Automatic annotation (TrEMBL):
It comes from Novosphingobium silvae. Keywords: Cell membrane, Membrane, Transmembrane, Transmembrane helix. The lineage of its organism: Bacteria, Pseudomonadati, Pseudomonadota, Alphaproteobacteria, Sphingomonadales. The keyword Transmembrane helix applies. It comes from the Bacteria. This is Mechanosensitive ion channel. Its main location: membrane.
C-alpha cells in the first residue's frame, strides 16, 4: 500500500531538560556563626540571641545589632585576656633562663610579646569574620597617621630594640645624660620600655627619657665595659705645709673610706699653685657608682679634715696685700686718727 506524500512527517517528541539551579549558601562567619552555634544548643538561649539580633541599627547597607556588639566585646575581652596571660607566662619562663643575661631576656621578652599580640589580633579578626579587604581605605588612612602622628612612637620602639640588641645601654647601667639646657642628669637605668628609658637618680626622682634621645645624644655610660669609676676630690693646703706630709694624710684619708678600692690604689696629684696655697686632687676608684659619688667625696674630705687638725695643718684662707701711696690726703687721715 502506497503512503501519501502529503502525510506530515513525525515530529520528534520534546525531551524535558532539567536545569540544576545551585543556590550558594552564604558563608557563616563572625557573629552569625556564633549565633548559629549558640542557638543550636538551647531554644531559650536562641530566643535571647534572636531578641538581641532584632535590636539593630541600619547604617546604609550595614546592619549593626546588639548581638553583634556583644560578640565583638566578648571576643575582644577573650583575646586580650589570653594574649596578656601568654605574655606573663613567657616572661616567667624567660626569667628562669639563667644562661641569658638581663639584656637578652628583656629583648626576647619584647619580641615574644610583640609576636603574641600580633597573633592575637589576627585570631580576633578571623573569629569575628572581618574582611580585611574592606578596610583598604581605613588601612591607608591609618598608615598615613602612623607616618605623621606616630612617627616618634615607632622611632622610639625601634630605638629601644636597637639599644637592647647593641647592649650599649642596658638595665642596671649608671649613665649621665645632658638635657637641652646643658645640665647633666645622673642615675641608674631601671628598665627599657617600648617608648622610654626609666632613669632613677639618687634622690629617687625617676626620669623617662625617650629611646631616641639615647641614640642621637652623647651619653656617659659609667658601667658599659667596666663598673670601675674614678672620683676626683680637690683639696687646698697653705704654702707653709710640707708637701710630702700633706700627700700622706690625703692618701690615708682616702684609704679609710670603705667603698674606695685598694686596686687601683688612691693617688694624689699636685694640680696648681693658687692665690691661697697648693691645690691638690685626690683620685679614688669605686666599683658601685649606682650608690652615688658625692657621698664618697664627702667621706674623704671629712677624714682628711680630722687628720689635718690632728697634725696642725690649717685650711688656707684668702690673703691680700694692700699697698698705700704716700699722699697728702693719706697723711691728713693718719694725723686725724692719731688725734682721736
Amino acid at each position: 500500500m502506497a503512503r501519501s506524500l502529503n502525510t506530515p512527517a513525525a515530529t520528534p517528541t520534546p525531551t524535558a531538560t532539567a536545569t540544576a539551579v545551585v543556590i550558594e549558601e552564604p558563608q557563616i562567619s563572625g557573629a552569625d556563626g556564633i549565633k548559629e552555634a549558640v542557638s543550636s544548643r538551647s531554644d531559650t538561649v536562641g530566643d535571647v540571641v534572636d531578641t538581641l539580633d532584632r535590636l539593630a541599627l541600619q547604617v546604609g547597607s550595614a546592619r549593626l545589632s546588639l548581638w553583634d556588639f556583644v560578640v565583638v566585646v566578648s571576643v575582644l575581652a577573650l583575646v586580650v585576656t589570653l594574649a596578656w596571660s601568654a605574655s606573663r607566662l613567657s616572661s616567667r619562663l624567660l626569667a628562669r633562663a639563667k644562661r641569658l643575661d638581663l639584656t637578652q631576656r628583656l629583648l626576647i621578652e619584647k619580641m615574644v610579646s610583640l609576636l603574641i599580640w600580633t597573633v592575637a589580633f589576627l585570631v580576633g579578626v578571623d573569629v569575628l569574620g572581618i574582611d580585611l579587604t574592606a578596610l583598604t581605605v581605613f588601612s591607608g588612612a591609618f598608615g598615613l597617621a602612623i607616618g605623621f602622628g606616630l612617627q616618634k612612637t615607632f622611632g622610639n620602639l625601634i630605638a629601644g630594640i636597637i639599644l637592647l640588641m647593641d647592649k650599649s645601654i642596658k638595665p642596671g647601667d649608671v649613665i649621665a645624660i645632658a638635657d637641652q639646657s646643658g645640665q647633666y642628669t645622673f642615675g641608674q637605668i631601671r628598665r627599657i620600655g617600648i617608648r622610654a628609658v626609666s632613669l632613677t637618680t639618687r634622690d629617687q626622682k625617676e626620669y623617662l627619657i625617650p629611646n631616641e634621645n639615647l641614640m642621637v645624644n652623647q651619653v656617659e655610660n659609667w658601667s658599659y665595659s667596666s663598673k670601675n669609676v674614678r672620683i676626683q676630690v680637690p683639696v687646698s693646703v697653705p704654702y707653709a705645709t710640707d708637701l710630702e706630709e700633706a700627700e700622706g694624710l690625703m692618701l690615708e684619708a682616702a684609704r679609710s673610706v670603705k667603698r674606695v678600692l685598694a686596686a687601683p690604689p688612691p693617688t694624689v696629684w699636685l694640680d696648681s699653685f693658687t692665690e691661697n696655697g697648693f691645690a691638690f686632687v685626690i683620685h679614688v676608684w669605686i666599683t658601685d657608682p649606682e650608690e652615688g659619688t658625692g657621698n664618697v667625696r664627702s667621706e674623704v674630705l671629712k677624714g682628711l679634715w680630722k687628720l689635718m687638725r690632728a697634725n696642725g695643718i690649717k685650711v688656707p684662707f684668702p690673703q691680700r696685700d694692700l699697698n698705700l701711696r704716700d699722699t697728702e690726703a693719706l697723711r691728713d687721715l693718719i694725723e686725724a686718727l692719731r688725734s682721736q
